[in-house]
Amino acid sequence: MFYFLCFFYVFIFFLLNSFTCNVVVWWVVFLMMTLVFISINKGSVSSMVNYFMIQEILGFTFLLVSVSWVQLVILLMKVGVAPFHFWVFSVTNGLSGWSVMWFLTMQKLPFIPVIMYLSVSYFVYLVVLGIIFCYFQLFFVKGYKNMLVLASTESFSWLVLMIFFSLSSGLLFGLFYIIFFYFLLDHSGSSELDSYNWETVFIFMNIPFAMTFFVKFFSLISLFSSYTFLLLLVLFVMFLSVFSLGFWLCNMSTDFNFNIFKNRSYWYWFCYPLMFLCLI
């Protein structure tokens, strides 16, 4: 019953931000969302304190600044949109199961109308830069849970990009994404152990015909009209990822001799990065 009440509050806050252009009202909604997060995660003191400190500092700065693009950057930091997601792991490391799902989905929902209101033309390039940054960061992230959080952050950036071009389509896919996220994490996460596995991580990265795959696919369709070169570049990378995915899975399913990378440096610098293109 408590979680249904939180869902109701989030829905009300989303509608309030959608029909209001007052900075003070936005700030009050952000504060209420912080209180909702704290009430849900009372058992995780470190995550609760880290989230509260970050949100309140950024929220106070958002209230004082009157420049729209600065407010947009601050808001992207509050939500954790790439490349401003540096603080996300300090919060998710203390969360598990349902709390992870809430933080990565419902907690961000009331911020979307404000992001759309403050967005400008170069906002698209900033989001694409954040997506590329997530791809590179995947090389350095350890642990299934952190990889899942990073992949979800990247997928949310695609969702924001889609909403920028079509609000109704983006919100529809956002709804399906939340439902998909809930059912997947409900069986993949445990409150006692970080039990996320490779299958879960792959689904959130870009396994064909998974939910995030369609989010990215329709986001690319939205880019057709205005950003042709950028679209072709992304499609080229996705084309390479198909081959790299098959290459990587075949090697992981057999007794692959990784010493070949040590003996042939040119093979290492060519094939090894292509193997990791399946993360894109």
TrEMBL record:
Membrane spanning stretches: 7-40, 52-77, 84-105, 111-136, 156-184, 196-215, 227-249
Protein's UniProt keywords contain Mitochondrion: yes
Keyword vocabulary terms for this entry: Membrane, Mitochondrion, Transmembrane, Transmembrane helix
Protein name: NADH dehydrogenase subunit 2
Organism ancestry: Eukaryota, Metazoa, Ecdysozoa, Nematoda, Chromadorea
